[in-house]
Design goal:
- The chain is an all-alpha fold.
- Helix 3 (about 45-65) crosses helix 5 and helix 4 packs across helix 5 (about 130-140).
- The chain has 2 domains: about 1-150, Cytochrome c-like domain (Cytochrome Bc1 Complex, Chain D, domain 2), CATH 1.10.760; about 165-330, no CATH class.
- It is about 45% helix and about 0% strand.
């Protein structure tokens, strides 16, 4: 009975029928058999790369993303979240500036590592590097936007050591920037604005639950930083690239807002007030040179990243199976 319950639960979580489960399994096995016999290309010309990319895509990717790359394959109806529509050129996971197309390295990382909590598997142990490179070039051909851009400037992502002091300050920045309105103060995706969120296709979408510790882009500090700075295109998650130049004067009325009064306890409001009183005034910020301003903005970004990182829990396997519904958290 236990095994039946486990299997039933898994089938419910991925929201597909047994027939569709079997069909998807057959497709995946067929892809594995075919790809195992595909030779690697060394010194290949453009046509060979295209041919390899097309063959790899049609076998490994088209069952979900469609032969035309529009994410509308028969299997897509059974999946939640839905497969990416490559024809729009809108990608969530990028290391490029907000609104810019992803670099090849971004696409290759997604293909290689997969996306936790979704039906997108990690292909790094199935496809060779030439196959991943080739399928990357092939799927870019579905969108005309890639042909219009030749230079993909990527952002520089420095690192910062983890500290309890930074986490404490990051918690207050989390309040200031309103992250809690969707994700909740404890990061469980249960903020007051979480209900009713829609993606670009007007489909319901949930605010991510940070406590899972398994984020789609990756769960390292650098991965969280990239999501914060670049945003997730096609979702309500914006880029916060320009959001950190706040001063004491900007935040004076924040504490009196009704939603803050309703959502936070007296002690939480007090800690926020103390933090606001500790930050620079507009005059003090303007007195800094450009390097000083940049360093302050970077410090604030990493403090917020560290707070989000600190929210993750480490549940056991039974909790993962029976409590966490990653597939429903897009």
């Amino acid at each position: 009975m236990l095994y039946i319950n486990i299997i039933s639960k898994m089938a419910h979580r991925i929201q597909i029928s047994w027939a569709r489960t079997i069909a998807l399994t057959v497709l995946l096995l067929a892809a594995l058999v075919w790809l195992a016999g595909t030779p690697e290309l060394k010194g290949a010309d453009a046509q060979e790369v295209y041919d390899l990319g097309k063959r790899t895509y049609q076998i490994a990717c088209s069952p979900c993303h469609g032969s035309n790359g529009d994410g509308n394959a028969p299997a897509a109806k059974a999946l939640n979240p839905k497969p990416r529509d490559f024809t729009k050129g809108a990608y969530k996971f990028r290391s490029t500036f907000p609104g810019i197309l992803p670099a090849d390295e971004d696409l290759q990382k997604t293909i290689s590592q997969g996306i936790p909590g979704t039906s997108m598997p990690a292909w790094k142990n199935i496809l060779s590097e030439p196959e991943i490179d080739a399928v990357t070039q092939y799927l870019k051909g579905f969108s005309p936007f890639f042909g219009q851009v030749t230079d993909f400037d990527t952002l520089i992502f420095p690192t910062s050591p983890l500290s309890q002091e930074a986490i404490a300050r990051g918690k207050e920045i989390y309040k200031i920037l309103g992250c809690w309105t969707c994700h909740g103060m404890k990061g469980r995706g249960d903020g007051p604005s979480a209900k009713g969120l829609l993606d670009e296709e007007k489909r319901p979408i949930k605010a991510y639950d940070f406590t899972t510790g398994s984020m789609k882009r990756g769960s390292e500090l650098s991965d969280i930083y990239k999501t914060l700075i670049t945003g997730l295109r096609g979702t309500p998650m914006p880029s916060f690239y320009w959001a950190f130049r706040f001063t004491r004067e900007n935040l004076q009325e924040l504490l009196s807002k009704e939603i803050y009064q309703q959502y936070f306890s007296g002690s939480e409001l007090k800690s926020l007030q103390e933090f606001i009183e500790s930050i620079l005034t507009e005059a003090e910020l303007n007195a800094l040179d450009s390097t000083g301003v940049e360093e302050l903005m970077e410090q604030r970004k990493w403090e917020l990243v560290q707070y989000v990182y600190s929210l993750k829990r480490h549940p056991g396997p039974l909790s993962e199976l029976f409590i966490r519904d990653h597939e429903l958290t897009r």
